[in-house]
């Protein structure tokens, strides 16, 4: 992977960036995504934010190597603290972290989101918490994607400002994803279903306690949800 050729995962993230956007890529690592977006003429300017010194220095070096220091600002900062009002950022990308970490980044510096109209979030795990956060903070799901790369399955959630209503199943599975039922989606939830069945089987012979009963009820409920979908 480099600034001209992204991974399948980041390339999918890039597809959701609107043409003419001013992008902040939080946790940018080598700044491959911002460099790619500028090279492709998708973004007009970008901020690459990194909280760790090593990746920050890698991003600075990459931006210089690509000759994009006039278009991309690299900042060493904690999450959205990398975004300044003068940047006029309208699109934020956060990719390659767990859902709870992404939510904590969004919540820590809410002032940095004031001018932002689109969030493109790629959680490695627990996309559900991102949908829950969106519901609670007046963001609506504009689109979703799911893909497999290197034997891992990734979800991408694209949010625009606005309210929405989601069912319990839509929060868990993703409203757009559960309609399309792409092969990666079916694979992910078939695997989860098998895991839940295994756990349920393992506790069947366990001593009956309130905790065990609660876990059994939770697993049975999840299995009913997923079976109704697949």
Automatic annotation (TrEMBL):
Q: Which InterPro entries match?
A: SAM-dependent_MTases_sf, TrmK
Look up the record and give one Gene Ontology term from the biological process aspect.
methylation
Gene3D superfamilies in the cross-refs: 1.10.287.1890, Vaccinia Virus protein VP39 (3.40.50.150)
Task: Tell me which UniProt keywords the record has, alphabetically.
Answer: Methyltransferase, Transferase
Source domain of life = Bacteria
Give this protein's Gene Ontology molecular function annotations: methyltransferase activity
> Is Hydrolase one of the keywords?
no
Q: Which SUPFAM superfamilies match?
A: S-adenosyl-L-methionine-dependent methyltransferases
Q: Where are the transmembrane segments?
A: none
- Specify the protein name: SAM-dependent methyltransferase
* Organism field: Lysinibacillus contaminans
């Amino acid at each position: 992977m480099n600034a001209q050729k992204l991974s399948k995962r980041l390339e999918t993230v890039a597809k959701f960036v609107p043409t003419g956007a001013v992008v902040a890529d939080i946790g940018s690592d080598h700044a491959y995504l911002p460099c790619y977006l500028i090279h492709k003429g998708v973004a007009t300017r970008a901020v690459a934010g990194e909280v760790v010194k090593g990746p920050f220095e890698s991003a600075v070096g990459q931006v210089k190597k690509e000759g994009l220091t006039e278009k991309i600002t690299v900042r060493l900062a904690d999450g959205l603290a990398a975004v300044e009002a003068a940047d006029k950022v309208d699109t934020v990308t956060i990719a390659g972290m767990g859902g709870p970490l992404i939510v904590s980044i969004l919540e820590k510096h809410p002032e940095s989101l004031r001018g932002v109209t689109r969030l493109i979030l790629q959680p490695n795990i627990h996309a559900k918490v991102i949908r829950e956060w969106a519901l609670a903070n007046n963001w609506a799901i504009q689109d979703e994607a799911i893909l497999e790369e290197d034997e891992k399955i990734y979800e991408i959630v694209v949010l625009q400002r606005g309210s929405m209503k989601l069912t319990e199943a839509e929060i868990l599975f993703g409203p757009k994803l559960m309609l399309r039922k792409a092969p990666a989606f079916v694979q992910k939830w078939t695997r989860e279903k098998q895991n839940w069945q295994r756990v349920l089987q393992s506790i069947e012979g366990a001593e009956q306690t309130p905790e065990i009963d609660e876990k059994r009820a939770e697993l049975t409920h999840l299995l009913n949800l997923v079976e109704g979908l697949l």
